[in-house]
Amino acid sequence: MCTAIRDDIVSGALAPGSRLVEEILAARYGVSRVPVREALRTLQSEGFVTTRRHAGACVAEPTEQEAADLLDIRAVLEPLGAARAAVRRSPAHLKVLRGLVRLGRERARHGHAADLRQLDGWFHETLAQAAGSPSLTALLTQLRRKVEWMYTVEGAPRAGESWDEHGAVLDAVARGDAERARALMAAHIERSLPVHRLRRPAPPAVRDAKRPVNTARARN
């Protein structure tokens, strides 16, 4: 339930400022109000939901400063995760990461931009898991979701370069070179900043859309 609501917030299906009425959400996802209430509490603790006087739960409306802070935090945590992964990664992590880099390079070479963002997300999530720290992995995962929520990424022009950078990070992780992995990830994050564009709030006419959705995801 939490995953379904979070995904709709990140995608913009539930726009910033939209009211989150338990009864309406329960009908939207085909569940009772209890899991909706629990999910809203979790999402409030993560910063995706806020509570307003006389309005109840609403999708949060981050300021530009809050959005900028996320990129600064990412610039600190992602290199740390890469460094930890170089020390703690398993053979299974390396196998998955190598497969993702191979696919990413192939898709970038053939101009399959639609696949690249998802592959990029999987690469960074797998690297976070390879860090061997549940707390750090959770922070990095939540951070990436928030960055995806607040920013669009116009990365097609440097897709090939980006996957070459992923490959270099992976090589350092595979060799167990924590400091090189940290430095390469820091440089990768720095180079990615210019392609991030802050999302603009949806027009008022669509802010409280209550369209029905596929309820299959709501069982998560």
TrEMBL record:
Highest taxon of the lineage: Bacteria
Listed SMART domains: FCD, HTH_GNTR
InterPro entries assigned to the protein according to its UniProt record, in alphabetical order: GntR_C (IPR011711), TF_FadR/GntR_C (IPR008920), Tscrpt_reg_HTH_GntR (IPR000524), WH-like_DNA-bd_sf (IPR036388), WH_DNA-bd_sf (IPR036390)
Segments forming a coiled coil: none
Domain called HTH gntR-type: residue spans: 1-62
Protein name: GntR family transcriptional regulator
PROSITE patterns, alphabetized: HTH_GNTR
Residue span of region Disordered: 200-220
UniProt KW Transcription keyword: yes
Entry keywords, A to Z: DNA-binding, Transcription, Transcription regulation
Recorded GO MF terms: DNA binding; DNA-binding transcription factor activity
Pfam families hit by this protein: FCD, GntR
